[in-house]
Write a structure and sequence with these properties.
The structure holds two protein chains of two kinds.
Chain A: H1 7-16, H2 22-41, H3 53-59, H4 67-74, H5 79-89, H6 92-99, E1 104-112, E2 115-125, E3 128-142, E4 147-152, E5 155-156, E6 159-163, E7 169-182, E8 192-198, E9 206-212, E10 221-231, E11 234-243, E12 247-254, E13 260-272, E14 277-278, E15 287-289, E16 295-301, E17 311-322, E18 327-331, E19 336-339, E20 347-350, E21 355-361, E22 372-376, E23 382-383, E24 385-393, E25 396-403, E26 412-416, E27 427-432
Antiparallel strand pairs in A: 1-2, 2-3, 3-7, 4-5, 4-8, 6-7, 8-9, 10-11, 11-12, 12-16, 13-14, 13-17, 15-16, 17-27, 18-19, 18-26, 20-21, 21-25, 22-23, 22-26, 24-25
Chain B: H1 3-10, H2 14-36, H3 39-56, H4 66-88, H5 90-101, H6 106-111, H7 116-127, H8 132-139, H9 143-163, H10 170-185
Helix pairs in contact in B: 1-2, 2-3, 2-4, 3-4, 5-10, 7-9, 8-9
The chains are: A mainly beta, B mainly alpha.
Pfam family, one (chain A): DUF5643
Keywords (chain A): Membrane, Transmembrane, Transmembrane helix
Organism (chain A): Chryseomicrobium excrementi
Chain lengths: ~425, ~190
């Protein structure tokens, strides 16, 4: 065998011999992109991300702040508002972070298009960050769907986030708070960040502010649990608990042999040796699934700074449907419902070529969830939920949903994300002993 | 590579991501085919690498080198596939490769006799025509090291190519034997 000494032309000559099946290749790329998006969306928010403000206040039992602490913080400029906010969120973990001087004041501003954004301060940890900021503007600022981003060392940190914005349009001076929840944790030594906000005004004003944390982050504490709990014939495996300054994440998996498909756990509380209670996160990312949906992590208010000697997790109201009865079968074209679970007085109506409504008994007033999930066509093609709205009224839960395809041919099987039907029983396990 | 497009894809702009993949899909496919030697596996590789690129994109430091970076992900995927297949069907795989590729892809076949990291360097340089600077950045090696490794690898390949026909090593003889044995059975 003799080789051309011009390596590049030899290589190119070899590549030219490879024919490209263009259609199949396009399809492979599209399928890959879809799969990627799907793996990403499996990091779904298990509980409602943005519960309407009115609803949140139903849960609020205001945190007590000692008068001494209240007067101490009011000496610091801007702190009153931050304490007020944390009290409003009813997050004792965040309040405790502030009381323990973990809130990092920044006061860094940037002016763009005659609007000024100031980062008042942050509460950071390896899994995410809370950013408190203020915008001052002579003109009105449109608030619908502006975007927030966070970068570490100039690299975007993929994250989900939630923010408040009580009014869609504001003028003058106003304050907001955004919670970032990172898909993957950052290194505990990360000090340099960039916070970016893009407003939906005519000029799409974008603020981008670099900042360095004044103090180092505190590392998360990891507790390995590896405990199995049985409720109503189903095994729940508690894997680990990660306690960070902002929240506690507890990772659970469900045994594949379980007779029921488990959806959400409506009542979860952490209690210390004195009976003090840390609840779940009420507003924001309250749970995430891992890539292949085999594990779920629930988030609680943090006990990081309180350092309880003992911490127990109490769970109740575990949503579940028996396997084999855990789906909807509909035909969108014929507007027919072929199967619906016989629980909670569920009524299903197919309203269009890709849309349907559900009406069911709410059962517990803690049931407030996006109810539907992915669908499969007869040919096993996966179809994603395009949008879903839900409301509760007079003890009934009402859902309107649309799927991401124009027309479904044949029967379509739809999975649930939540269902107001519960396992019989509750459980308690030790997290810290 | 359009740096702005890469930046947009990095922050999960789906249109930008798709456009980015489409600009390199032919290179990704050819790379996969060169290593895996059949259309089915190559298409599957492109699909899986699309997912991996999406997941790893936020970690990409130099957007200008996105193409070579994606080729690296592809080559690593192909090598993983080899490892798996070898565990299951070592002989069959070797025979297949011997039969189909040697005549059509002599340079590539020679490259495959090198260690994996050297294979990548030569592939980037001659098949993808990446600059030495780009290769150094993607492999996080000093420029001088990239140059000398490519140079030494080519020296080695020149020798191998000249020796072929007369002085075959044991592996090649075995390969030849199993090929003819199969032909005899057919």
């Amino acid at each position: 065998m003799s080789l051309n000494d011009n390596w590049t032309s030899q290589a190119q000559h070899e590549l030219d011999k490879i024919e490209i099946p263009q259609n199949a290749l396009n399809q492979a790329v599209m399928q890959g992109a879809r799969k990627a998006k799907q793996r990403r969306t499996t990091l779904r928010v298990a509980w409602p991300t943005l519960v309407a403000a009115a609803l949140i206040f139903l849960f609020v039992t205001s945190i007590r702040v000692s008068p001494a602490f209240a007067s101490a913080v009011s000496q610091l400029p801007g702190m009153e508002r931050i304490v007020e906010y944390v009290q409003g969120e009813d997050d004792r973990g965040l309040l405790s972070a502030i009381q323990n001087d973990y809130y990092q004041a920044l006061g860094i501003s940037q002016e763009v298009n005659y609007k000024t954004l100031t980062i008042d301060g942050v509460i950071p940890d390896e899994q995410g960050m809370v950013v408190f900021y203020t915008i001052e503007s002579a003109e009105g600022v449109e608030f619908r769907g502006e975007s927030h981003k966070i970068f570490a060392n100039e690299m975007n940190i993929p994250s989900s986030y939630n923010y408040n914005n009580p009014d869609a349009q504001k003028q003058g001076r106003f304050e907001d708070t955004v919670h970032f929840h990172y898909e993957n944790p950052v290194d505990v030594t990360t000090r340099n960040y960039t916070f970016e906000v893009q407003l939906k005004d005519a000029k799409e004003t974008t603020f981008s502010i670099d900042f360095e944390l004044p103090n180092p982050m505190k590392p998360s504490k990891v507790y390995t649990l590896n405990q199995d709990v049985e409720i109503d014939g189903n095994t729940l495996h508690f894997k680990e608990a990660i306690v960070s300054p902002r929240k506690i994440g507890i990772t659970i998996s469900y045994d594949a042999e379980n007779p029921d498909t488990i959806y959400n756990i409506e009542k979860m509380e952490l209690r210390d040796q004195k009976g003090e209670v840390w609840g779940t996160i009420q507003n924001g990312v309250t749970g995430t699934f891992n890539e292949d949906n085999t594990e779920i992590t629930y988030y609680y208010q943090s006990s990081y700074f309180d350092e309880p000697e003992q911490l127990n997790l109490f769970i109740d109201r575990v949503q579940a449907l028996p396997k084999g009865e855990d789906y909807l079968l509909v035909n969108f074209i014929e507007r027919k419902v072929l199967y619906a679970p016989p629980y909670a007085d569920l009524k299903v109506t197919v309203t269009g070529d890709n849309s349907l409504t559900l009406n069911m008994q709410q059962v517990n007033d803690s049931f407030s969830h996006g109810t539907l999930w992915t669908a499969h066509t007869e040919t096993q093609e996966k179809v994603f939920l395009a949008s879903e709205g839900f409301s509760t009224h007079n003890g009934r839960h009402h859902v309107e949903a649309q799927y991401e395809i124009d027309t479904f041919l044949g029967d379509t099987k739809i999975e649930f994300n939540a269902y107001p039907h519960y396992l019989d029983g509750s459980a308690e396990i030790q997290i810290i002993q | 590579m359009d740096a702005e497009l890469v930046e947009r894809a990095k922050i999960r702009d789906e249109v930008a991501f798709l456009t980015l993949i489409q600009t390199v899909q032919n290179d990704l496919y050819r790379t996969a085919f060169a290593f895996l030697q059949n259309e089915h596996d190559a298409l599957e590789a492109v699909q899986e690498v699309t997912v991996r690129v999406y997941q790893q994109l936020p970690k990409l430091r130099q957007p200008a080198y996105a193409k070579t970076w994606m080729i690296r992900i592809m080559i690593n995927y192909c090598h993983d596939q080899f490892k798996r297949k070898r565990q299951i069907l070592p002989l069959f795989n070797a025979v297949e490769r011997g039969q189909t590729s040697a005549a059509e892809f002599p340079f590539f076949e020679l490259i495959q006799t090198l260690p994996i990291d050297r294979q990548r360097l030569l592939y980037y340089r001659y098949y993808i025509q990446a600059s030495i600077e780009e290769i150094a950045a993607i492999e996080t090696l000093p420029i001088g090291t990239v140059k000398s490794r490519i140079h030494k690898s080519l020296e080695l390949l020149r020798k191998k190519s000249n020796n072929q026909g007369g002085d075959r090593d044991v592996f090649e003889r075995q390969l030849d034997f199993t090929s003819s044995a199969r032909t005899g059975q057919d």
